[in-house]
Design a protein that fits this description.
Layout lengths: L2 E5 L3 H13 L5 E5 L11 E4 L2 E4 L5 E2 L3 H9 L6 E3 L5 E5 L2 E4 L4 E2 L2 E2 L2 H4 L7 H12 L13 H9 L1 H13 L11 H4 L1 H10 L2 H6 L9 E2 L7 E4 L4 H10 L3 E4 L4 E7 L2 E6 L2 E5 L1 E4 L3 H7 L5 H6 L3 E11 L3 E2 L6 E4 L7 E6 H4 L8 E8 L12 H13 L3 E2 L5 E11 L6 H15 L3 E3 L9 H18 L1
Parallel strand pairs: 1-2, 1-17, 2-13, 7-20, 17-25
Antiparallel strand pairs: 3-4, 5-12, 6-12, 7-8, 9-10, 9-11, 14-15, 15-16, 18-22, 18-24, 19-23, 20-21, 21-22
Length: about 450
């Protein structure tokens, strides 16, 4: 191999370049093309006075080790911070309810303790208890299934709609009834297979596997960096020694040539033997028309806006002490979640302030994302105002939009990705696909996948 070109300078592209420098022979030239005038992609920490607010992702699931490994590899291990723990809530039409303790993604680990929740009526509790302790006569699925339908059969509709769906929609985009169980929470089915029921499977999870367990934790399950996630993408860029990074370079088309591929860019044509493409699926569809365009068309991302509001502590009365809340579809609000940053990330906020990060835009109803900043701020304040006493306007409001946001992970996602990659190796040899659309939506998933692919590329020689 003579050269490798990476398209996209987000965390996936930067990780690809970092590990390509480590694994590929010295004489392979490496180029990274980024359309924007900065690196980092979705990761962007906005520094404003004493505050640093994340415009995109704010943390990662610590048990997914690929990101921790990368952080140590670039020498930022000392900067790791874990989230503060506290009570989280779910908002319904009738107000805020504490998310019950000892649950994993809304599934109870102790059905008796779960009885205290105000989310279910007495009868609904009794029905849930019966379903968990004497599971219906169903066998664990052998192939992928809809996460919603899988859970509805095992825990019933009320808890799925009032607790599990709101928690999930903070992580994955799309309809829970169309979402892949195996590509989102494989541990549900694995646990059921091993221990005979979903309930027993969850109760046997090791603590580090308990994604989104609420309560009973001393250390938070998320990690970030003291000076924000941008410090990781900045450090990655600094550590690149032999990668030529070209900013403001947008790839417009890819052509096959005898020696590999020709990239048509706004800065001229560039030839490369191998490619790593980390751009959104719609562009892959345009660049590589010979592959499964149905799958790529289905991976249409859902747009999100976030609005971080900085208040003087005395200007707002929070409705509870805790880390924030998610909203159910029943709630009459536009906001989908709100994180109390000073509780979740105490290091990020000086004493005397509250910082609230509000999320807006649901799949299928994301017009708000295109609204002017003032409207987004006004919507956030209106919805928050119904839940807490806001006595004065925020000192600062930072609006961000992620238009190429979260793609839906539908049933049979992993099978379709496998088929796509098999087809790629036949019709576009030497082109790797990596990023949010394939092997998991979180940063650690993107890092793990591209790290492995670069290692395999090096082994091929
Ligand atoms: C609202 C939201 C919240 C999230 N929160 C979390 C979280 O808390 N934790 C977590 O782990 N994950 C989170 N994620 C997922 C996380 O953001 C992604 O996994 C990760 O950032 C993907 O990185 P990437 O490099 O693959 O893509 P990107 O960051 O999108 O990078 C792609 C890059 O390609 C460039 N590009 C595009 N087109 C071209 C072109 N034609 N030519 C050249 N360059 C091009 C873009 O400018 C961009 O820089 C969140 C995602 C969203 C949308």
């Amino acid at each position: 191999m003579r050269n490798l070109t990476i398209v996209g300078g987000g965390i996936t592209g930067l990780t690809a370049a970092f590990y390509a420098e480590r694994y590929l022979p010295e004489d392979v030239s490496i180029t990274l093309l980024e359309a924007n005038d900065r690196l980092g992609g979705k990761i962007d920490t906005f520094e404003t006075g004493e505050f640093a607010v994340e415009r995109g992702p704010d943390s990662y699931v610590f048990r997914k080790t690929a990101m921790t490994e990368l952080i140590h590899d670039v020498g930022l291990g000392d900067e790791l911070v874990r989230n503060g723990v506290g009570q989280a809530y779910v908002l319904h039409h009738d107000g805020l309810h504490p998310i019950p303790k000892q649950t994993v993604m809304g599934i109870p680990l102790d059905v008796d303790a779960f009885k205290q929740t105000s989310l279910l009526s007495e009868d609904e509790h009794a029905a849930l208890r019966a379903m968990l302790l004497s599971p219906p006569d169903i066998t664990p699925p052998e192939t992928d299934v809809s996460l919603g339908l899988y859970l509805r059969e095992r825990v019933g509709d009320p808890i799925v709609d009032r607790l599990i769906e709101p928690l999930l929609s903070g992580i994955y985009a799309g309809d829970i009834d169309k979402m892949s169980a195996l590509s989102t929470f494989p541990q549900f089915i694995e646990g059921e297979k091993k221990y005979g029921s979903l309930y027993e499977g969850m109760r046997h999870l090791r603590p580090e596997q308990r994604v989104a367990e609420v309560g009973a934790k001393k250390v938070g399950q998320f990690a970030s960096l003291r000076r924000g996630l941008k410090s990781l993408t900045d450090r990655l860029a600094e550590r690149l020694e032999r990668t030529e990074v070209i900013l403001n370079c947008s790839v417009e088309q890819v052509e096959e040539i005898e020696t590999g591929y020709r990239l048509l860019t706004n800065r001229g044509d560039m030839d490369s033997e191998r490619l790593v493409l980390t751009v959104p699926p719609r562009l892959i569809r345009q660049f590589l028309p010979k592959v499964d365009s149905d799958f790529l068309a289905d991976m249409k991302p859902h747009a999100t806006a976030t609005c971080s509001l900085v208040f003087k502590e005395t200007d707002i009365e929070l409705p509870f002490v805790g880390t924030g809340f998610v909203t159910s579809q029943e709630a009459d609000v536009m906001i989908t979640a709100c994180t109390f940053i000073d509780q979740k990330w105490p290091h990020a906020v000086p004493d005397g302030y509250h910082v609230l990060r509000v999320f807006l835009g649901r799949p299928g109803a994301d017009e708000i994302v295109d609204a002017p900043d003032e409207d987004i701020v006004a919507t956030a304040l209106r919805d928050l105002g119904g839940l807490m006493n806001i006595k004065a306007a925020p000192l600062q409001a930072v609006v961000s939009r992620l238009r190429d946001g979260l793609p839906p992970y539908a049933v049979f996602h992993a099978d379709r990705v496998r088929a796509l990659r098999a087809e790629m190796s036949r019709v576009y040899p030497g082109v790797l696909l990596a990023g949010i659309a394939y092997d998991g939506i979180g940063m650690p998933d993107c890092i793990k996948s591209v790290h492995e692919q670069i290692k395999q590329l090096a082994e091929l020689g």
